[in-house]
Design brief:
UDP-galactose 4-epimerase, domain 1; 13 strands; 35% helix; globular; binds nicotinamide-adenine-dinucleotide
């Protein structure tokens, strides 16, 4: 049995990673400030410390607890919020990473796996984006995540073996359906189920790479015993280019009722289009059967409908 620190386990991705580690009979401790997460998401059996990763006090309780690896997942993940308050963003994203790196050195925990983002790249020409391309973030959020990747690189001289996983657009069960500033698919889905209409901020021709949370969890767990992943930044996506209009089409097709869709405005720092080159991910982490987007979306609609919405409108 191993013991892991998973920051942000009250949130969407952190809770899924913690759940998988616990299912595999490991011990999990989490630090979460509950800013966007919910206590009820934290998997049973996880030791919960309510605290902020940028606050040195958050680590007091675990100074003497030995960890086999740290999964740093906590952080605010909205480009829009990073424009509303860049100082908050740098504290929650960059400063938290530094504090956690200092903790890992004190703790003697040398393995550190970080949830980075495709936002580090900024706008790129229309092609699968690889890890060696220049990073030129368009949002404060992307800048703070890129800074974290550099902190990890510098901390290698203190013996920290780190991996940054650059997540593309993650979707799946457990996404926060009330936060309208975070998660393209969860925003569209919540609008469709709650208001029977969808308002899209930006063009329908924008494109993204949508990756299911189960595949993201698999990637994190595979890193643990994978020496080749150490010292690297690795894209985690599907390599598929999907238009916003295709997502809307699949979501709307799950409903019996006609769902009006309006396109207006945009989101600051939002790139027009990006999708991943997954060669490095496949080479380093190996391949496994990935969730098909259409299946994943239909299952997501069904799970949300069955948990709290009326079934009457469902077409699937
Ligand atoms: N969801 C995506 O599509 C996506 C894509 C790329 C990268 N990421 C990254 O993955 C990570 C998890 O994203 P998510 O979608 O699960 O978001 P989420 O908001 O559901 O989860 C984040 C969790 O971290 C907690 N948190 C935030 N700041 C904290 C802090 N300073 N100290 C302690 N806890 C804090 C929140 O309360 C929440 O429980 C984030 O770092 C995000 O930047 C997510």
């Amino acid at each position: 049995m191993a013991r892991y620190l998973v920051t942000g386990a009250a949130g969407f991705i952190g809770s899924a990673i913690a759940k998988r580690l616990i299912t595999e009979e490991n011990e999990v401790v989490t630090i979460d400030n509950l800013s966007t997460g919910n206590r009820s998401n934290i998997p049973e059996g996880t030791t919960f410390i309510k605290g902020d990763c940028s606050d040195p006090g958050a680590y007091e309780q675990i100074e003497k607890t030995r960890f086999d690896a740290i999964f740093h997942i906590a952080g605010q993940s909205s480009g829009e919020i990073s424009f509303d308050d860049p100082i908050y963003d740098i504290r929650t994203n960059a400063e938290s990473t530094l504090r956690l790196l200092k903790f890992s050195v004190r703790n003697g925990c040398s393995r550190f796996i970080f949830a980075s983002t495709m936002s580090v790249y900024g706008q790129k020409p229309d092609h699968p984006v690889g890890e060696n391309e220049e990073c030129r973030p368009e949002s404060f959020y992307g800048v703070a995540k890129l800074a974290s990747e550099h902190y990890l690189r510098i901390y290698r001289q203190y013996g920290i073996r780190s991996t940054s996983l650059r997540l593309f657009n993650v979707y799946g069960p457990g996404q926060n359906m009330t936060n309208m500033k975070q998660g393209m698919i969860s925003i569209f889905l919540a609008q469709m189920l709650d208001q029977q209409k969808i308002l899209v901020k930006g063009s329908k021709d924008r494109f993204r790479d949508f990756v299911h949370v189960d595949d993201v969890v698999e990637a994190f767990v595979r890193c643990l015993k994978n020496k080749k992943s150490e010292g690297r930044s690795i894209n985690i996506g599907t390599g598929k280019r999907t238009l916003v209009s295709e997502i809307i089409k699949i979501l709307v097709s799950t409903q019996k009722k006609n769902i009006p869709v309006h396109y207006e405005g945009n989101t600051p720092g939002d790139v027009f289009g990006i999708y991943s080159d997954t060669s490095l991910m496949n080479e380093v982490l190996g391949s496994w059967p990935k969730t098909d987007l259409s299946d994943g979306l239909v299952r997501l609609v069904q799970s949300n409908v069955f948990s709290k919405h009326s079934h009457d409108n469902l077409n699937v």
